[in-house]
Amino acid sequence: MTIRAIAINPENPQQFIEFQPEKPSAGEYDLLVEVRAASVNPVDTKVHKGAQKNGLQAPRILGWDASGIVREVGSKVEGFRPGDEVYYAGDLTRPGSNSTFQLVDSRITGRKPASLNWAEAAAIPLTALTAWEGLFDRLHLDRAEEGKTLLIVGGAGGVGSLAIPFARLHSKVKIIATASRPDSAQWCRDRGADLVIDYHDMPGELEKQGIKQVDYIFCLNDTDGHWEAMAKLIAPQGHICTIVENAKPLDMEQLKLKSAALHWELMYTRSMYNTPDIARQGEILDATAKLLDDGKITTSLSKTLEGLSVETLTEAHRLVLEGHMRGKVVMVY
Predict the structure, then answer these.
(1) Sign of the dihedral through C-alpha 32, 33, 35, 40
(2) pLDDT > 90? residue 157
(3) Mean pLDDT throughout 132-144?
(4) What distance, in Å, lies between the first and last C-alpha atoms of the chain?
């Protein structure tokens, strides 16, 4: 079996190279997947940036979103067999999906939505897991009382594109999303946002609507830049969840005075620490697949690139780094 992969070049980490890694051996819970499509997320560009800063001793394969076909299963795998079509976001500590074959833990893997093609399916896992965990495992939005408000900062991105309909389907809250362009605002409305505001002045925009505070905030970009506004807007005993690391210390004074909570969401936590509930991710992906197949949510795919190559991966990273993507960019192998 010949495996092709695109990886960060250890001799020049700014660039990617193609190479042929050895065939991986499946661990007891692993699936060996023939990858058919993979999407590129901000985490890919962040890991690439880190490699440029810190250097590498060997090529590193990025990619943490994929769809493909199971070719081999480990000794303790349950519920999967060769030939099954799957989708998953993988594990930050293992070689990624920018490869023709990849090992992934079966417990963090879901069955590919039958109604989606490879590219449409590959656009989903990381953003679905991040949105679901942030809304329901961190903010516990499914327990929120009717009349409560949720502000999603960055509603038109990959995570926001699923967070909006997840909140619509599984909670009673009023959903407010931020977007800066007319097309992005319409994208949010189409997915179920009750109100869309410009993120440049969130307090001012909400004040125009007669809203002075919100009960929940899900921050999907620029925690540092939005922190002052979020601390001002969060209601007493409210909850903020962010997926974006801060570059400088965050002033917690207003949160302390309001007895408000700050939660972090990283969808790799379960796989990184092999938590007792690691299989929860497979359950979330299967639940998401059903919503997709039932037509209750739609894929967030917005651009498809053909082929696994240095050129297509470079272009995909460029598009993500621009920061203006609505939805996801996917490479089909």
Answers:
(1) negative
(2) no
(3) 97
(4) 16
Render 116-143 in DSSP notation, one character per residue.
S-HHHHHTSHHHHHHHHIIIIIIS-GGG
Q: Which residues pair with 240 in a beta bridge?
A: 217, 262
94 pLDDT above the threshold of 80? yes
Q: What are the angstrom distances between the C-alpha of 221 and each of 155, 180, 241, 244?
A: 10, 13, 11, 6
The answer to whether the CB of 87 falls within 8 A of the CB of 290 is no
Q: Is residue 126 within 8 Å of residue 66, measured between CB atoms?
A: no
Count H helices and E strands in the chain, helices first.
Answer: 11, 15
Which pair of structure tokens corresponds to residue 247? 């570059």
**Domains located in the chain, CATH noted:** 5-124+271-332 (3.90.180.10), 128-264 (3.40.50.720)
180: confidence class by pLDDT, cuts 50, 70, 90: confident
In 3D space, the residue among 88, 77, 106, 108 whose CA is nearest the CA of residue 36 turns out to be: 88
